[in-house]
């Protein structure tokens, strides 16, 4: 820095110090929030696990919090989440990656100026609206076009909607990573006579791979936590993945973790019973899964930042 | 940068006409457009369905089991009340945190930890924030199930990371020379922040906060978790009134089996919600554009 820096030698006043600590409190509030989330989830989850064993929760294959016989196996809910995540990944990952390649390698500045905000709109639409779209427009449309037996509530249209919602998440982070690839790498490839297709797929994508990977994980984490689309359109039938007919899972009603939480939240269950407390056990499971994924995404992303700066 | 490749001579090589090359370009363009086109088609559908349902009576009536009588007013007012409260809570807290991180904090372990933590909070599912609100505001502080305050505090925590991150970007964009000039005139750190940094960063901070409020108005899952009633007939008249919100009312109506609800009343509700959201985002964009031209 060419200019002298006075900022740390500024006159200190009692008032200035007071503001400093006030602002610091605001920043520390974010840490308090994380602590509060963990404590809230843990305390009530501990109550739950006093009534239902952790092993039964983690390995049970039946979820029925209110109807006899009562069972609190979380695996069917994780299966439901997995189905939605795989379905939305099949929509969002290829489309998002191709979008990022187009924006980074092909689009003119003018095109980019229109396309990027338009893509951001996809992530800005309230999820309850997507859920409604899936239920009343997408499901009837698929039912009319494809010769399949589609339930009113099904994983297919919910997955498609979640997929569309997370496209901009994949495309914007991947595009940032591709834009950070040094132009010399592209020029070298063109110099060898490569076409734009070859440059994009064999040079830019591999060079931006960690950023792309990071965007994938973040988008999938968003899909796992998505609540309203699945609560409205995917149904309330907890079931295990049928490995003999995985595609059939998409045509039927399922229940992901988030949807089960909404069902308990909107129900009349209150008080200290395990049915109500299971809300926090499922919430904790969801929090841990998404937290770990976000952390991995952050670590991968910070690695690629170091490579090209 | 990639943005420059279009103008470099190398582009000539890129244009070597090969079927695969052209096909890939078209495929990538199609992928870029498919999400936008699908959403446009869905929006067109819902707009057409809302015609005849979205009228003055819909906007001024309370909800009703008869689709022809049903209205959106309590949900609309509830959403706006919650949003104003959220703005009051998040703006000072978000700006305060951003000022600390950008102007005061050194690049130490604690700062990096706070930064990583904020990034992580932005990725926590909204339904989990709902459980936090249920445990903290409804349970511990006893603010009451589904009240205006509980709803506002819960969603405020949810959008706070977004407000902080955008306020930080706005503060970072203030040229350092202006701070140095202020210090050179003998101003203290606080005077510099109040008279130089914040006024310059304010349009950016406002834009970020308003966009975050747009996100807040569409949130549904946290409200369900703090047991906000899906349908409310009266208007909220205190901080402790039970409150519904537009997305919650839409969620409730979407489960009604009658076609009049599914393709009429809900469509009108969705269009109203989207119009309010569009208005909020337009205000943010107008603020940004007006001040961008001036500076």
UniProtKB/TrEMBL annotation, chain A:
Entry annotated with the keyword Secreted: no
Membrane-traversing stretches: 21-50, 70-103, 115-135, 155-173, 194-220, 279-301
PROSITE patterns for the chain: ABC_TM1 (PS50928)
Cited Gene3D superfamilies: MetI-like
Molecular function terms from GO: phosphate transmembrane transporter activity
GO BP terms: phosphate ion transport
Alphabetical keyword list: Cell membrane, Membrane, Phosphate transport, Transmembrane, Transmembrane helix, Transport
A GO CC term attached to the entry: plasma membrane
Keyword Heme: no
Domain ABC transmembrane type-1: 78-297
Localisation per UniProt entry: Cell membrane; Membrane
Protein's membrane topology: Multi-pass membrane protein
Role: Part of the binding-protein-dependent transport system for phosphate; probably responsible for the translocation of the substrate across the membrane.
NCBIfam families: phosphate_pstC
Family: Belongs to the binding-protein-dependent transport system permease family. CysTW subfamily.
Protein name according to UniProt: Phosphate transport system permease protein
Organism of provenance: Natrinema altunense (strain JCM 12890 / CGMCC 1.3731 / AJ2)
Automatic annotation (TrEMBL), chain B:
Entry's transmembrane regions: 26-52, 72-101, 113-137, 143-165, 261-287
InterPro entries for the chain: MetI-like, MetI-like_sf, Phosphate_PstA
Family (UniProt): Belongs to the binding-protein-dependent transport system permease family. CysTW subfamily.
Cell membrane listed as a keyword: yes
GO annotation, cellular component aspect: plasma membrane
SUPFAM superfamilies: MetI-like
GO molecular function: phosphate transmembrane transporter activity
UniProt-recorded name of the protein: Phosphate transport system permease protein PstA
Keywords carried by this UniProt record: Cell membrane, Membrane, Transmembrane, Transmembrane helix, Transport
